């Protein structure tokens, strides 16, 4: 109660002061005019960018039937547990891996040599992880579509093809893993099939990861600033831990009776990760979101580097500087900003093809908003925005 009362008193004092004229009867300074708030817009409101002709063509090819068929096929292997059979032609992770490799290779065969398919394999030994109870070969299937202009810059998409049930070391019982994560692998495979016919400027890698479960658009997308569900680990986590940006697309409300569960009926309720739980239209829309993201990033320039903002000057200006990215040519740069309580960028300032900029707005400046700088390429493709770090320099740095 005391804290609330104090806050109320201060708030009242603040509002009383805002409508008074001089600060002190004999003091020449006055409060800033309320006409300056809300702050005037600098630049222009950020508008949604519609997909270009090539991306529209890609999105039109995403097949619900293909995605469903892949999920059903992966679930048909019974289990894809990391420790399950690697030699049985019909059941286990080995059979699933062989089938996936053949499907990725079919996509590569249509790419005129731009896509290659490889295995990334290693031996995992007991002791490294409590869920590995004997030495096992772990293989990720990798389909790489080489970029036409900046092949050394890679964007990776994928899902994990291993599965599990209630017991994390039960490698013999059924674990169809339809949702977790045959659905993610199906998206990766479908996009590999489509993208193989195109020439992205940067490299795109389509993967079917192993050992995720057993070791560690017409939709609304909500960004959650958290690594993963509590007590969980996703396929994107190793990328984040290695210093790369990683994002996981996941449904907002998970049903845990349908995930990491033995296939059984208890008290009249079906448990287990079964195909019947899938919404294939949802999967198809998710595939289009991923396709749009990968194509847009792969054709955009790299992010500007060494992005900084001068915080030593005692003024209302915002002085930026940055270094041009290597790789794809840059047509110009944009400074984005948003209010400090906004989750998304709201406004954009086109600053041209320069590597420094002095924003002289008295209301939109470094103390009041969050800024970001991004690169822009021919065709309007834009890199992710980079937040500036403080630096000190002369006014025209």
From TrEMBL:
GO MF term set: metal ion binding; metalloexopeptidase activity
Entry protein name: Peptide hydrolase
Family annotation (PANTHER family): METALLOPEPTIDASE M28 FAMILY MEMBER, PEPTIDASE M28 DOMAIN-CONTAINING PROTEIN
Enzyme Commission number(s): 3.4.-.-
Short name of any one Pfam family annotated for the protein: Peptidase_M28
Organism: Cochliobolus sativus
Stretches assigned to the Fibronectin type-III domain: 303-396
Keywords (A to Z) from UniProt: Glycoprotein, Hydrolase, Metal-binding, Metalloprotease, Protease, Secreted, Signal, Zinc
Cofactors (names): Zn(2+)
InterPro entries: FN3_dom, FN3_sf, Ig-like_fold, M28_fam, Peptidase_M28
Primary site of residence: secreted
Location of the protein in the cell: Secreted
Swiss-Prot/TrEMBL GO biological process terms: proteolysis
Keyword flag Membrane: no
Signal sequence extent: 1-20
Similarity comment: Belongs to the peptidase M28 family. M28B subfamily.
GO cellular component: extracellular region
Record keyword Metal-binding present: yes
